[in-house]
Amino acid sequence: MKEILKLEDISVGNEEVKILRDIEFEVKKGEIISVVGESGCGKSMTLRTIIKLLPKNLKILKGRVYFEGIDITDLDEEKMKEIRGGKISIIFQEPSSYLNPLFTIGNQIEEGIKDRIKKEEKKERVMKILKEVGLSENVYYQYPHQLSGGMQQRAMIAMSIINKPSLLLADEPTTSLDITTAFEILNLLKDLVISHNISIIFVTHDISLARFISKEMIVMYAGIIVEKGFSNLIYSNPLHPYTKKLIDCLPEKYNKGERIRTIEGEVISFKNLPNGCPFYPRCEEKKEICEGFLPKEIEIENVSVRCFKYGDFMES
Ligand SMILES: Nc1ncnc2c1ncn2[C@@H]1O[C@H](COP(=O)(O)OP(=O)(O)OP(=O)(O)O)[C@@H](O)[C@H]1O
Ligand SMILES: [Mg+2]
User: Fold this and answer.
1) What DSSP line would sit under 49-116, residue for residue?
2) Which ligand is closest in space to the CA of residue 220?
3) How many whole angstroms separate alpha carbon 268 and alpha carbon 276?
4) 192 phi-psi bin (left φ>0, alpha ψ -120 to 50, beta other)
5) Which of 25, 253, 267, 270 has a CA positioned 20 to 30 A from the CA of residue 42?
6) CB neighbours of 286 closer than 8 A, spacing ≥ 6?
7) pLDDT one digit per residue (tens) for the chain, 316 residues
8) Ligand 1 pocket test: which of 53, 174, 269, 270 has the largest number of ligand atoms within 8 Å of its C-beta?
9) Ligand 1 atom 28: residue of nearest CA
10) Could you tell me if 211 and 235 are in contact, meaning their C-beta atoms sit under 8 angstroms apart?
11) Which of 41, 91, 93, 266 to mutate to test the pocket of ligand 1 (most atoms within 8 A of CB)?
12) What are the sequence ranges of the domains in the chain?
């Protein structure tokens, strides 16, 4: 299958901090890929790099971003604006903070339409999209506060697909929802991949959601990819000690009455990144070499992993 997006050896930061290092992955056409990791590990920054909405003090230090086969790394802001909300769209965790309370849902979705078409045609397109995301026509006339959280997220999804994007970046879109509503939204995203032939990057801190929604996943820690490959393989046989911990700490892994487990220690500060593996201070399987050197990505049975457990492979 052809790839729609490719990140090639991306590093993001400035003279003082490196937030992302050596990020490399592909998104295939019509597929969902998940990016998983704890808070602060660089998930949103990865999405921001793709659409070039980085904080002012950070920039792409090396690497390239290819979208639909074209190198978009150095595109100017005007061209990026066309792509954002057009061929690449984004949805966020908190729909309520992105919907304007003063305008109806219909009005807001219509506003986003980039094609120059007549008002009636716009309305028709919005009505159709509302139906596709599981909302009634009534919602067109309603204001955000009249909708539940799940309905608001559906409205955001409608807004994000109104210009027929080929790539949707979904940044923790279900975090603020209850679990049933979250799964409804996940199913909707899965359906959209088929009905609209779009690709999705799904960002989540929950590795079980990632397994549910996507065939492939990327596990990030402190700005590097520690493991990537098929979700089922990674979930059933995690290779990296960090991925193992993420799975161990899932609520469904507990026996009744057991204390809630967390990964001990804190996510490392980007200001004091060690030379070696960033997970080293928290890792229960560390070796001496882990402190001083960053392991290279190696491939083991269709999964790639960055850990010295599997051999002393270093960047040359
Ligand atoms: N402008 C900035 N300058 C320097 N560091 C920054 C800046 N903005 C964010 N960071 C750091 O970049 C790191 C990655 O942030 P990012 O928002 O990508 O995390 P995340 O994985 O999306 O976390 P969360 O799950 O909490 O959303 C964080 O540790 C954050 O402190
Ligand atoms: Mg984030």
Assistant:
1) HHHT---TT-EEEEEEEEETTEE-TT--HHHHHHHBTTTEEEE-S-HHHHS-TTS-HHHHHHHT--S-
2) 1
3) 12
4) alpha
5) 253
6) 277, 280
7) 589 999 999 999 999 899 999 999 999 999 999 999 999 999 999 999 999 999 999 999 999 999 999 999 999 999 999 999 899 999 988 888 889 999 999 999 999 998 899 999 999 999 999 999 999 999 999 999 999 999 999 999 999 999 999 999 999 999 888 999 999 999 999 999 999 999 999 999 999 999 999 999 999 999 999 999 999 999 999 999 999 999 988 877 767 777 767 777 777 778 878 889 999 999 999 999 999 999 999 999 889 999 999 987 776 5
8) 270
9) 40
10) yes
11) 41
12) 3-87+163-310, 102-162
Q: Are 294 and 277 in contact (CB under 8 A)?
A: yes
- CA of 254 relative to ligand 2 center, distance in Å: 27
244 CA → ligand 2 middle, Å: 21
Question: What fold is seen in the domain 3-87+163-310?
Answer: Rossmann fold (3.40.50)
